[in-house]
Design a protein that fits this description.
CATH topology of the largest domain: Rossmann fold
Number of domains: 4
Largest sheet: 7 strands, mixed
Strand content: 5-15%
Radius of gyration: 32 Å
CATH class of the largest domain: Alpha Beta
Number of strands: 14
Shape: globular
Structural class: alpha/beta
CATH superfamily of the largest domain: Vaccinia Virus protein VP39
């Protein structure tokens, strides 16, 4: 409160003075001696405002305009009362005090325009200090000149110690034995220099020139070390990476190269592979900590560039900033506008990279996103693609989409009411994660004839009309549940493939389980169709189905296709991703928001719903003597006698169950924490569901728990989209561009 008043009190004094002067010179009472209408309504609004402000304060939501308005109105009335009484008048003579409201209101608006940004900046700085984002104690920030002088002094000190060490090496006997001590002094000097530098960093975003210095200093204080011949992130390495993350968040306009190194002992090929694995392990960790993946690239240098002697930290991984340049600003997560500028070393290779390989030679490919939800397909496609149009009919999801991606391309409305005139330009790709309710196990079997899943047909009618207009997209990508393959005995899937073939597309399908990328069991069907005139490289197709993306149920669905659809069928060849090294336990929040721990009685009741098989799983985890996190769903099952009963089904394989929309009979997922004899349980948090969908930590979720759960449960896993784009969609477009150029 004191800090708030320190910003606004001069303005309040001025408003008080306006009220005092107005009441001093303008005194006139109502004919009946009562309250003037403006004052009566003003006091009523003031009371309502106080109630609203009190509620927002209890909920922790700032309302600076409201709070300052209440304070300004109170200051004006107090000034009026003071002016009236000081001039020998009476409080009843308030009829014309309203004349002072206009200048007071203008002054209040000006106060908010000037002071609120300053106040919010001070709040953010305080929050960074409270959360540990500012390194070291709060001292006077170093200016660029002071920092340069400081670093030069530190460099001279280090050189002096190095010369002393070299001189000591020329001596014999006891003098030579002093070398380790001098080396320790050198390291100690570097450590103190780094700590002092970090302590002097100003709060907030860092200028580009300071980012590498801050990263180097942070790694001097806390080194990222790996066990020998391993790419496993230890607890100590995680602590060091957390410190690096706090710096990376303050460098929003740079690309980061994670350069992996090894010592020079052993086989070079093995060292090269190990260094790449280490770099990619760090990349995945940083992404999970909220560093935008589009800024990261992982490069392994093996032992070609050893960063340490073999007996001195041989397993350290270095992070360097490459290609420092400003990024275009605009709506949240706006794509990089300077994608055609020279690319720095490493080419931004990472888990959710936005561009790869020859696709960089093209301008950004474009797409329409139908049934967009919260924009998870957009999150997966990344900044290397440009969205021309997005649509969804759900207002709450639309609000989340706009909060994360801006609203320029988004149109809220039913797909059945859309017209091609509303679709700008020519899109390279049309993405549609159309509703699954009538195709899933929880549905009633309506399939593509259902109210929700049946919206596929008005959507596809738009695709047909685009072709008629000469604006046919070169690629189509549809995502839905695997029940699409068997809905109505396979007729729904056959209808989709037949429609694609009849519109001039060759199509194929893949079943991709999100468990390959994130710790969530979530198999989904992806149908990818390419325009018949688009050249398809032989390397991107397979003569026969192959695991893991062409399971038996997909092969069976192909057998049920009509001849025309079978002739247009393609078995897409998709590279398998690297083995996932994240488990459910690693994504769990230590301080979850919006969910509460259940009581011991509630936890026991949840366990009592388990069948014998699931209780045995729980017993095995408790007997193992190590902390574990399991995922639990409550299901309706039938007993051997055919009686309906509720069961709790648990899994402790490092995966969560498939996130589902908490409606239509689907339950929310619980987490069961096992630590020896102790059991605790709670609902999975909204942020944890976002992590299971591969979304960044700064992805903005709805404030309500149910809305957030429904958003993520309805979405598509972003890393799956990224993998599909990188290994199939982008190469197909590049092949078409090369053919056109030839």
């Amino acid at each position: 409160m004191d800090d708030w008043l320190s910003h606004f009190w001069p303005w309040l004094v001025a408003i008080f003075a306006i009220g005092a002067v107005t009441a001093f010179v303008r005194r006139r009472a109502e004919a009946d001696g009562g309250l003037s209408p403006w004052l009566a309504w003003g006091l009523l609004a003031f009371v309502v405002g106080l109630v609203v402000a009190g509620v927002s304060a209890l909920q922790g939501r700032p309302g600076l305009w409201l709070h300052s308005g209440l304070a300004a109105y109170a200051a004006f009335l107090m000034g009026c009362a003071t002016g009236a009484l000081g001039g020998g008048g009476h409080l009843r003579e308030h009829r014309e005090w309203a004349l002072g409201l206009l200048p007071a209101t203008l002054l209040w608006v000006g106060a908010n325009a000037v002071e609120i940004p300053k106040f919010e900046a001070s709040l953010n700085a305080g929050a960074e200090e409270a959360n540990g984002k500012s390194a070291g104690p709060q001292i006077d920030p170093l200016t660029a000149a002071k920092r340069a002088t400081f670093l030069e002094s530190a460099r001279r000190q280090a050189e002096k110690l190095a010369r002393s060490r070299a001189a000591a090496g020329d001596q014999t006997g006891s003098v030579a034995s002093a070398a380790p001590s001098l080396a320790q002094q050198l390291r100690s000097a570097r450590l103190e220099t780094a700590r002092a530098y970090l302590a002097g960093l100003p709060a907030g975003a860092l200028e580009l020139a300071a980012c590498q210095e801050a990263l180097d200093a942070t790694q001097t204080v806390r080194k990222v070390l790996f066990p020998s011949a391993s790419a496993e992130i230890t607890r100590a390495a995680a602590d060091a990476l957390d410190a690096l993350t706090s710096i990376l968040r303050r460098c929003p306009d740079v690309k980061i190269e994670i350069a992996g190194h090894t010592d020079n002992i052993g086989d070079e090929a093995r060292n090269q592979a190990l260094s790449q694995q280490r770099a990619e392990a760090i990349l995945r960790y940083l992404v999970l900590q909220g560093v935008p993946a589009a800024r990261l690239t992982a490069v392994g240098y093996g032992s070609k560039q050893p960063i340490a002697k073999n007996d001195d930290e041989p397993h350290r991984l270095r992070i360097e900033v490459t290609g420092l340049r400003s990024v275009a600003r605009g709506s949240p997560r706006k794509a990089l506008e300077n994608a055609e500028a020279p690319l720095p070393r490493g080419s931004f290779h990472r888990l959710f990279s936005a561009r790869r390989g020859a696709i960089r030679k093209m301008s950004k490919p474009t797409y329409y996103e139908f049934f967009a939800g919260g924009g998870m397909a957009r999150a997966g496609l990344g900044e290397g693609w440009r969205c021309l149009f997005a649509n969804d009919f759900d207002a709450k999801k639309a609000q989340t989409y706009r909060a994360n991606w801006g609203g320029d391309e988004f149109l809220l409305g039913d797909v059945r009411a859309l017209d091609t005139a509303q679709l700008p330009g020519v899109a390279d790709l049309v993405w549609a994660s159309f509703p699954c309710q009538d195709l899933s196990l929880a549905g009633r079997g309506a399939g593509l004839a259902g109210e929700r899943s049946g919206t596929f047909w008005p959507f596809f009618d738009l695709v047909r009309r685009l072709r008629t207009e000469g604006r046919a997209p070169r690629l189509l990508a549809f995502e839905n549940v695997c029940g699409t393959l068997t809905s109505h005995g396979g007729k729904d899937f056959a209808a989709i493939c037949e429609a694609l073939a009849g519109t001039g597309y060759r199509c194929g399908a893949l079943v991709i389980d999100a468990a390959l990328f994130v710790p969530q069991s979530r198999p989904r069907l992806f149908v990818v169709a390419a325009e018949a005139t688009l050249p398809i490289p032989l390397a991107m197709t397979a003569p026969n189905p192959a695991t893991p993306f062409h399971p038996p149920r997909l092969r069976g669905a192909l057998e049920r296709l009509p001849d025309a659809a079978r002739r247009a069928w393609v078995w897409w060849r998709l590279a398998s991703p690297r083995a996932r090294n994240l488990s459910l336990a690693e994504l769990v929040e230590t301080r979850p928001r919006g969910v509460a721990w259940r009581s011991e009685e509630e936890t026991r009741a949840l366990v009592s719903l388990m069948s014998e098989t699931h209780r045995e799983r729980l017993a095995a985890e408790r007997a193992a003597g190590r902390p574990a996190v399991g995922a639990v769903y409550r299901r309706t099952r039938y007993s051997a006698a055919g009686v309906k009963m509720q069961r709790a089904e648990a899994r402790f394989d490092g995966l969560s169950g498939c996130l589902r929309t908490p409606a239509g009979g689907s339950s929310r997922q619980f987490l069961l924490f096992v630590d020896g004899a102790r059991l605790r349980s709670r609902l999975i948090s909204a942020r944890e569901t976002a992590r299971l969908m591969g979304l960044a930590e700064d992805y903005i979720l709805p404030s309500g728990y149910s809305d957030a759960y429904r958003l993520t449960g309805d979405g598509v896993v972003a890393p799956v989209v990224r993998h599909l784009s990188h290994h199939l969609l982008e190469p197909l477009l590049q092949a078409g561009a090369q053919r056109q150029a030839a």
